[in-house]
Design brief:
Radius of gyration of chain A: 37 Å
Number of strands of chain A: 4
Oligomer: heterodimer
Order of helices and strands of chain B: HHH
Structural class of chain A: mainly alpha
Number of strands of chain B: 0
Helix content of chain A: over 70%
Number of helices of chain B: 3
Distance between the termini of chain A: 116 Å
Chain lengths: 692, 102
């Protein structure tokens, strides 16, 4: 059973490697469909295995639901000892099922959506690699391995946003996402360092393992550790939350997500809506035992989450790109999830994460289907009246919109209502006034959500005619079965997904809460948050009213008033509209504050480089040249002179001696014979002298 | 009368000097070759003489026979060279053959 756990992770990796190495030839020899089938089957088998293991978990005793596999001791340095260990407990089981389940559906959808792309092998390789990294992230049993997955999904996000890298804008969007994520990752790493440091100061020299069960045990003693008179859990909590704001697109690091829509639509659905961006929420839920020791950190999370929820929702009002509306909607919904985990309602946060994965994936894929039908057009001003032309897309999109708006009976209602209720109740425990402020912001955000979603629905699918070229209009068609079947399935999940987490006021036991209880029970008991059924009914009523108002307002402006009516309203509030349409100029402010200031600093540094460093270097070069010249002179006149002198001396001697060489044999014989005589005479004389 | 080594050595010296003289004075290449042969033979006489009067073994005789054989082959080679030279220059005059002049 444990060995199956590795298969879940490894199968997508194998798929990725096959497509990455042989994929090009496969696509050339057969067709891109084969690449798609390889990728889809690897992730679907992962899903099936995960589902089987999930059933095994359910059959276990409620407190021992935990399957782990320890592959080997991965890092052993000093007193830090990290294992390569995967775990399937209720929390990671939910995440694994969402990632591999929604992932499989989106892989399947991609086969249809990407059918005409030239490098499907690359696409599917990246997509499988993403699934691998995401599964590592959610199944890791310690923070270091989790960080590997965390970085892996960041990399895949970058690769897939810039998938059509020939387009400079898209490549830039990928880089922006990567760099902004890196800022967040810096927070994550700092948090990790503080955590390791803090643990080594309290555990008395034992090995620090960083596995979650170990962290849970040690978290009680971390409360007393302080840095600069701030409690360690607060520091760690806030630093990890900074990491989460990068990955999960919260204020202030949300700016990359709208630009990330440059990637293919299924990628936006999988990575930038359903799975990767929820990693931050998962991480905080996973580290719940640290967060509950720091009400301050939790309050920061609630406030930032709620603010982001409203702020991003208002930006959705003025967007004209169908995918960008959904992108802001994602940021807003992620804000809801953070508000939930910040209110110590961890299971509600994860529940919303799951339902959001269903309906947002459905919305994105529906948008993809619309874009597909409109021959690549993403501007909703050029759409309209698509309701009758692409009915399957329309109805699934409508269901998902109702779900996200929080209409009773759909999944979003149950999860969102719980978040509103829990954030309200947290105010009477530890968040205080901030809790009420956050609750108000979230309620308004819920209203705005309903409004911008139905604005989108009315502009895109209703109206008298399609506001586009004749050629495009004639070409409008429903998407192929591989795409629509996925839409239908996700729409079904958008309704049914909510019923596993019915709130207790309906007189039933929440299956979802019950399943996750072993993970969060201890933590939630620390904060003692009160419960009140009356309040819950009241808040449920308020949230339904808010959703209804939002939809009705959208109906009045965009359906009753029609496209032209909306235009006149827009001109009346043109100033506000201008600001909202340009996303409150945050991108511009970031550009001035960060990009430009970095540029100025780098310009100053370049001046320093140019005049000081280069000056020193050039001086050194000049001195070297001078010495080289001197050296050259010595070479030329002293060394060469000696060599030439030898050569010329030998030449001179040779010229003198050459007259001896007459070439006549007899001359040589004369010299030889006379030499012989001379020799004899010499020997005689020597003998004479010696004998003397 | 009993001949002693001295007579043979005088003969050999005479032949040697004659050979040298011929080599130094004659212009004709063939004549020079003859002089060389005389020198060789004077050496042979020396070999045999010293063998007979000093060693009393057979070594000197063997050396003389090898020398005779060498002289025969030398003559063959030198005559071929002389013919080659003659073909090229139409003469065998030693004075004119100064292509080795430095």
């Amino acid at each position: 059973m444990e060995n199956l756990l590795i298969l879940i992770v490894v199968l997508p990796l194998i798929g990725s490697i096959i497509n990455g190495t042989l994929g090009y030839f496969i696509q050339k020899r057969y067709s891109g469909k084969v690449n798609g089938i390889i990728a889809t089957s690897s992730i679907s088998i992962s899903f099936l295995i995960a589902f089987y293991l999930f059933l095994q978990l359910l059959s276990m005793d409620i407190d021992s639901r935990r399957i782990t596999i320890n592959l080997y001791n991965w890092i052993f340095a000093g007193n830090l000892s990290v294992d390569l260990e995967f775990v399937l407990d209720p929390l990671s089981a939910v995440m694994v099922l969402v990632v591999s389940g929604v992932g499989s559906l989106i892989h399947l959808y991609s086969i249809g959506y990407m059918h005409s792309d030239k490098s499907q092998w690359r696409y599917f390789s990246y997509l499988n690699l993403f699934a691998f990294a995401m599964l590592v992230l959610v199944m890791a049993d310690n923070l270091i391995l989790m960080f590997v997955g965390w970085e892996g999904v960041g990399l895949c996000s970058y690769l897939l946003i810039g998938f059509w890298y020939q387009d400079l804008d898209k490549a830039t969007a990928g880089m922006k996402a990567f760099i902004v994520n890196r800022v967040g990752d810096f927070g994550f790493l700092l948090g990790l360092f503080f955590l390791i440091n803090g643990i080594s100061s309290v555990n008395g020299g034992e090995a620090v393992s960083l596995s979650f069960s170990y962290l849970k045990e040690i978290s009680y003693s971390l409360v007393s550790v302080q840095f600069y008179s701030i409690a360690l859990p607060t520091i760690i909590g806030i630093l990890f939350f900074i990491g989460a704001t990068g990955k999960s697109a919260q204020i202030p690091l949300y700016v990359w997500l709208p630009d990330a829509m440059a990637g293919p639509t299924p990628v936006s659905a999988l990575i930038h809506a359903a799975t990767m961006v929820t990693a931050g929420v998962y991480m905080i839920a996973r580290l719940n035992f640290i967060y509950v020791h720091s009400p301050v950190a939790l309050t920061v999370v609630v406030v930032v989450g709620a603010t982001t929820a409203l702020y991003a929702a208002t930006m959705g009002f003025a967007q004209t790109d169908i995918k960008k509306v959904l992108a802001y909607s994602t940021i807003s919904q992620l804000g809801f999830m953070f508000a939930a985990v910040g209110s110590a309602a961890f299971s509600s946060g994860i529940f919303h994460l799951m339902t959001h994965a269903f309906f947002k994936a459905c919305l994105f894929l529906g948008a993809g289907s619309v874009i597909h039908a409109m021959s690549g057009e993403q501007d909703i001003r050029k759409m309209g009246a698509l309701k009758g032309k692409i009915p399957v897309t329309y109805y699934t999109f409508l269901i998902a919109s109702l779900a996200i708006a929080g209409i009773p009976g759909f999944s979003g209602f149950f999860s969102k209502d719980e978040i509103l209720y829990r954030s309200f109740m947290s105010a009477s425990s530890y968040t205080g006034t901030w809790g009420y402020i956050a609750f108000t912001l979230l309620l308004i955000a819920a209203l705005c959500t309903a409004f911008y979603m139905f604005r989108l629905v009315f502009i895109t699918f209703y109206g008298s005619e399609v506001r586009s070229d004749k050629k495009v209009v004639e070409h409008i068609h429903e998407s192929p079965l591989s795409m629509t079947s996925v839409l239908v399935l996700l729409a079904f999940l958008s309704i049914a997904g909510g019923y596993i987490g019915l709130p207790e006021i309906f007189g039933v036991h929440s299956l979802f809460d019950g399943f996750l209880k072993p993970i969060f029970e201890d933590s939630e008991s620390i904060l003692s948050i009160p419960h009140s059924h009356t309040t819950e009914w009241l808040i449920m009523f308020l949230s339904v009213i808010a959703a209804a108002i939002g939809i009705y307002a959208a109906y009045l402006i965009y359906y009753r008033g029609g496209y032209e009516g909306a235009k006149t309203i827009r001109t009346k509030i043109s100033r506000i509209h201008y600001v909202v349409e340009n996303k409150y100029f945050v991108d511009e402010i970031y550009n001035i504050l960060i990009v430009d200031s970095v540029k100025v600093v780098s310009y100053l540094f370049s001046l320093f480089d140019k005049y000081v460093i280069d000056g020193i270097v050039n001086l050194a070069a000049k001195i070297t040249v001078l010495f080289a010249d001197l050296d050259g002179l010595i070479d030329k006149y002293v060394v060469d002179g000696l060599v030439n002198l030898v050569a010329q001396g030998i030449k001179y001697i040779g010229e003198r001696l050459r007259s001896l060489q007459t070439g006549r044999i007899q001359d040589y014989v004369y010299i030889m014979v006379s030499g012989g005589f001379l020799g004899l005479i010499l020997i005689r004389i020597l003998n004479f002298l010696i004998s003397k | 009368m009993q001949l002693t080594a001295q007579e043979f050595l005088i003969l050999a010296a005479f032949l040697f000097s004659t050979g040298i003289y011929i080599i130094l004075t004659r212009q004709n290449a063939i004549a020079i070759l003859m002089g060389v042969e005389l020198i060789l033979n004077s050496v042979n006489i020396n070999f045999v003489t010293f063998d007979r009067f000093v060693l009393g073994k057979i070594d000197g005789n063997v050396a003389a026979i090898i020398n005779i054989m060498l002289a025969a082959s030398e003559v063959a080679v030198v005559l071929a060279i002389v013919i080659g030279i003659f073909r090229k220059t139409k003469s065998v005059e030693a004075d004119r053959l100064d292509t080795l002049k430095g």
